[in-house]
Amino acid sequence: MARKPHPETAESPQAPEGRWWFLVRPQVIYGTIIVSGVIVAADDTDADLEVLELTAATIVIVWIAHVFSEIVAGQHTVTNPPTPFRGVLTHAMTHGAGLLISAVLPLLTLTIGVVGWLPNHIAYLGSLAIGVLSLAVLGWFVFAHRGNAWPIRLAGALGTGLLGVLVV
User: Fold this and answer.
1) What is the DSSP letter of 22?
2) What is the DSSP string of the chain?
3) How does DSSP assign 54-83, residue by residue?
4) SS3 category, 123
5) Are 24 and 141 in contact (CB under 8 A)?
6) Cut 0.70: pTM above it
7) Cβ atoms of 39 and 127 closer than 8 Å
8) Backbone torsions φ then ψ of 135, nearest 5 degrees
9) Which of these, 23, 19, 21, 55, lies nearest to 135 by C-alpha position?
């Protein structure tokens, strides 16, 4: 008996196409919100290295929790015949990769501040601006993928960007 493909990896009209497909995922969106929230909560301009470390550690811990929950309770764990563990682990790690992807640019910006290439407050504000801009771009991509005209795409971008502003 052939095993059915996991719904998110199956070919479907719902699956994003093209080279930006990995960005249009819930994990990227909530990863961006988590990273921005941690940076705001950890605001301490005298200890920018600590903000960087706390943000990186938080997103890695959330990613580990996501991978663990996918391994233990993901849909692929209830197949007949059972999915090999290697397949379950690979799926879980790639499914949650958006969490790590979402942290790259804000962490890079904070790192630039920590090493002194930007003033700390500029790096801090820049990392938050990247989060807001990322959510706006994701909103545009989501509505573009759904086939909406540019005014609806723009409204989606503004709406998701506004969510980022509210988080900050």
Assistant:
1) G
2) -PPPPPTTTS--TTS--STTGGGSSHHHHHHHHHHHHHHHHT--TT-HHHHHHHHHHHHHHHHHHHHHHHHHH-GGGS-SSPPPHHHHHHHHHHHTHHHHHHHHHHHHHHHHHHTTSS-HHHHHHHHHHHHHHHHHHHHHHHHHHTT--HHHHHHHHHHHHHHHHHH-
3) HHHHHHHHHHHHHHHHHHHH-GGGS-SSPP
4) helix
5) yes
6) yes
7) yes
8) -65, -40
9) 23
Q: How open is the CA angle 112-117-121, to the nearest 5 degrees? A: 70
Please name the helix (run of DSSP H) or strand (run of DSSP E) that holds residue 47, with its range, or none.
Answer: none
List the pLDDT tens digit at each of the 168 positions of the chain: 444 444 444 433 444 456 666 677 889 999 999 999 999 998 765 568 999 999 999 999 999 999 999 888 877 666 677 778 888 899 889 889 999 999 999 999 999 999 999 998 899 999 999 999 999 999 998 898 889 999 999 999 999 999 989 988
CB 122 within 8 A of CB 155: no
Closest Cα partner for 24 from 168, 148, 146, 158? 146
Let me know: does 157 contact 132? Beta carbons within 8 Å.
Answer: no
Instruction: State the number of CA atoms in the 13 A half-sphere of 27 facing the CB.
Output: 24
Which residue has 């509210």 as its token pair?
Answer: 166
